[in-house]
Amino acid sequence: QVQLVESGGGLVQAGGSLRLSCAASGGSFSTYTMGWFRQAPGNEREFVAAISWRGGSTYSSDSVKGRFTISRDNGKKTVALQMNNLKPEDTAVYFCAAARNSYYSSTNYSYRDFGSWGQGTQVTVSS
Predict the structure, then answer these.
(1) The pLDDT of residue 26
(2) Is 85 helix (H, G, I), strand (E, B) or coil?
């Protein structure tokens, strides 16, 4: 398993941007699909975006498509989430996650597909 640490959250006005980063250690980072999830109070953990182990394929939820971009750097063992045109409904704790199994790929990700999680970083978007 990999250990994950997120950074980059904060408070931003609607329409603004934030960039979240996730640093990995241990495990074979370059063999895992990586994902970002978020969870608002009272809500279930929600899929945001995922990127395949080589970075050749990305997936995102309809709610963030066209606004959020996921990327990775296997040499630096990092994955990032660039969030543009933020909305108040994007307010949540954002989690970085690594897939349970190496070379796992899907077109419909859920939190059950991921086995390693960071501690989360708070993103708050004010209106």
Answers:
(1) 87
(2) coil
